[in-house]
Every structure is written in C-alpha cells, then in structure tokens.
Amino acid sequence: MANDLTPKYTVPGIDREAAGRLIGLLRLRLHALNDLHLTLKHVHWNVVGPHFIAVHEMIDPQVDRVRDMADDVAERIAALGGVAQGTPGALVSERSWDDYSVGRADALAHLGALDLVYTGVIEDLRTAIKEAGDVDPATEDLLIEQLRDLEQFQWFVRAHLETAGGALATEGAHTEEQAASRGGELD
C-alpha cells in the first residue's frame, strides 16, 4: 500500500491526515470485500453434494450484497479524496490473508471453511469500526451497517454447521482445511 494516502482535499470537518488514515483503512476493507465476493462465487461454482442447491442458492444473494458493500466503500474512499484501488494486483499485494483453499467439495465442507473466512472478515471489520469511530461517524456508520449484514450471512452459514446439541461443528478449527473437514463430518 502507498505510504502516504493523504488526499489533496477531503470532506468538511476531517483534516487531510485523518482522511488519509481512513482511506488506508477503507482500502483494506475494499480488498477484503472484493476477495470475499470472489470467494463466495468460488463456493457457489464448486459446491457439490446433497446440500448443493440450498447452499448454491443461499450464496448468490450474499455475493450481490458484498459487491454492493465494496461499491459503498470505494465511493467513500473517493468522497474522502482518495483513490479506490479495485484492481486484482492491488488486492493481492496489499492483503494480509491467503487465497481461499478449498476447491470442489461438498456443501458442508465449503460452509465450514467459509465460516472461518467470515470470522476473519468480521474481526478485521470490528477493528476498522473502532478506528473509524475515533475520526468519522459517517465512515463508522457505513462499516457498522456492513457488519450487521456480514454477521447475518455468517449466521446463515453456521446454521448448517450447528449440531443438534447446539455446538458448532467447526469449533477449534484454525485453518480452512480443518474447518472443511469438520463441516463435512456432519453429513
């Protein structure tokens, strides 16, 4: 990521240096959302098994909403005077996570891995909300709205992974592969 993201101008009431910090924070959110929408499409295309249609149809509305979230973040970056770097190269060079690691797999395996993906995105988003809240309530509000939707999507995923006793099948998994294997054990 560029070291100095301080814009030449920004929205009234925020100094340029603070806007630069917000732009940096939002760039990482943009990358996370673009990556998430591509990961969700990957799951949509590569899910198989008896729960195929339920997961296949559950994922597309999530893809659409996550794409809208990315657009909102990019537009906020522009409003703050920054450049919304939405290219694949910027995403790959600036992200701090690896590519989604599950290929063609049964629905519950994908959902197990996707649960970990959502956990990472949500945890990072909560940190960003705290940072934005110190500077700009408008950016904070945008991120809070997205948090609600992402938590709901994770709830949809987790509903498939919950045992009759109320435990999450993927509890304690630290990698997508571990979570996928534990999710697949529910079948």
Automatic annotation (TrEMBL):
Domain of life the protein comes from: Bacteria
Basic and acidic residues compositional bias, start-end: 173-187
List the PROSITE patterns.
DPS_1
**What GO molecular function annotations does the UniProt record carry, in alphabetical order?**
ferric iron binding; oxidoreductase activity, acting on metal ions
The signal peptide here is none
Question: What single Pfam family name could you report for this chain, choosing any that match?
Answer: Ferritin
User: Which segments carry the region annotation Disordered?
Assistant: 168-187
NCBIfam families, per database record = PRK09448.1
Indicate the family of this protein. Answer: Belongs to the Dps family.
Q: What is this protein called?
A: DNA starvation/stationary phase protection protein Dps
Q: Kindly list the organism's lineage.
A: Bacteria, Bacillati, Actinomycetota, Actinomycetes, Kitasatosporales
